[in-house]
Amino acid sequence: MSSSRSPSGSLELSQISHAPVIRGPRDLLKLSLGALGVVYGDIGTSPLYAIKECFGAEYGVTPTLANVLGVLSLVFWALTLVVVVKYIVFVLRADNHGDGGILALLAQVTEQRSHPQRGETGRKRHLLLLSLALFGAALLLADGMITPAISVLGALEGLDVATPFFQPYVVPLALVILGGLFLLQRRGTEGIGVLFGPAMIVWFGSIAVLGIPAIVRHPVVLTALDPSHAVRFFAANGLQGFLILGAVVLCVTGSEALYADMGHFGRKPIRFTWFAVVFPALLLNYFGQGALLVGAGDRRIDNPFYELAPGFFLYPLVLIATVAAVIASQAMISGAFSLAQQAVHLGYLPRLSIIHTSERARGQIYVPEVNTLLMFACMALVVSFRSTSNLAAAYGIAVMGTMVSTSVLMFALMIRRWKWPVWRATALAGLFLAVEIPFLSANFPKIVHGGWFPLVIGALFFAVMTTWKRGRAALRRQLEASTLPIEQFVADLPVRKPHRVKGTAVFMTSAMGGAPPILLHHFKHNKVLHERVLLLTIVTEGVPQVPKGDRVRVRALGEGFFEVIAHYGFMQTPNVPEVLRRCGEQGLQVPIETVSYYLGRETLLTTGRSGLPIWRKKLFAFLTRNARPANAFYRIPPNRVVELGAQVEL
């Protein structure tokens, strides 16, 4: 049982960063190599389909010199404003003790101690920010479903360029690769992760080299750096020019990973890798594809990325692209695991199976439930959409929806935590939104052609997360109504003189300061108490990591009762036996091998007056029944657990 609020007199956590320490150039290069393999897989594979989609039949924009220069100008300034200005310069500064991600940003913005909410207006703003962050996180999970499908399909479509013979086999091959990728997740990425960086160096080196000859033949494409070409493009193409932003947005997919993975590598390696490798390679390839289109004349080019490659290099390029696509997919899958873990510990998802696959890398986890969901969703997308052109319609809304949510949260952070003047925060957030809202709007016509998918998935995840949060709050209120102050319970023991048996009992509770219902239930029916009784509460703090020295606090209540509060970050997995061992540091020695653990199991009835809509009650009851058992989640030995059931009306 976890709580997202600290008790009264909250623990002052050590203000340390959890990002890797860089002691010199060697550390910087090592972390930069890792960032290249994990952070930049998604945005790095965008050249497979971004320019191709811009000149697809859907938009009816022909690849004339003016149109090519206009599109390239849009691509360059999208990368510059979204990735460089927004994420590299500003968003990476918004770390939560070294970690990043939209839920880490939410934890900072809504932290009660830093900005207490006052009145109805403050409450509404809090709910708005919360809703935006949760829907952005939900869209990020939808993005995690689309990225593997579109990346692998985009890589394999090179076979169709080589010869039409392979066209019927693209979808089956994509299904085999994705199936193998998801089946390997349970083994962790530590073994193959060391290959990600070198493999992506080969990828970025290849796409850069492919673009250079075409640019040399048609250097006029370099004039696209002038933003006036983008302005003239809009003027010449009208509505179609605006709608093409729905394809240009594909060049910035994966930008959110720069922020989400900051805790694994640190902001300096991420920034260094972008400017030293990724940005130059992407620009060379995008401008190379543009140069190819400029020089094609009347010849139709269906896939400019693969047609940059000389004949002898086409099949090796497909192989390199497939490896890069798998790496991009792995990064998004791992990101979905981390997002689910954060949501569980912040109280927005029920308990899931969180398995650590590496003893050295704290961020490497495996969540079987999320893995299964992603696998079936990705395969369904491949079978249903069958090409990157069709999937692109679903991609843009997921990406831009998350980015807009991040921009609004950044605005709140600038004012609340950074103490910027309102005009300054408004100007910067306005710049972000002035770029992102047109991109998002240009994707609206795609809703009927596939854009509905991330919206539906996002709405479903949003409903689940908000229902779980509200349901847990309602359940907690119901349980607290049946509790009494623990001091009163302890003070009454000398009068009642219950029989005390040898040993130690641990009662898990989220109601600090009260006698938990499970304790009262046990005492009422069994009429006995252990010599020592520990009331254990797991508190999830609004920081990613809580140092071990700040982890456990013990308070003696008298009559053999102790209150134990264990503080964890939202990127950490609680471990009850570890908590009991650390009680020794507070002067309470606990014989772990002989402890009895008492857990409550509530049967929920939807006939109560909690105020929740009936559909939320039923959904919450379903989620509760299917949540991972508390003993498994908290790593409690199953042979030492006593469960007591109770019916609760919501």
Describe the structure.
- Helix content is 58%, strand content 10%.
- With 650 residues, it is of the alpha/beta class.
- The strands form 2 sheets. Strands 1, 4, 5, 6, 7, 8 and 9 form a 7-stranded mixed β-sheet that branches. The chain has a two-stranded antiparallel sheet with strand order 2-3.
- Helix 5 runs parallel beside helix 17, helix 6 packs across helix 7 and helix 17 packs across helix 19 (452-480).
- It folds into 2 domains: 29-100 and 147-392 and 432-446; 484-649, no CATH class.
How many separate helices? 24
Strand content: 5-15%
Sheet/helix structural class = alpha/beta
Number of domains: 2
Spatial shape: elongated
In short:
This protein is an alpha/beta fold.
List keywords for this structure.
650 residues, alpha/beta, disordered N terminus, two-stranded antiparallel sheet, seven-stranded mixed β-sheet, 24 helices, elongated, 58% helix
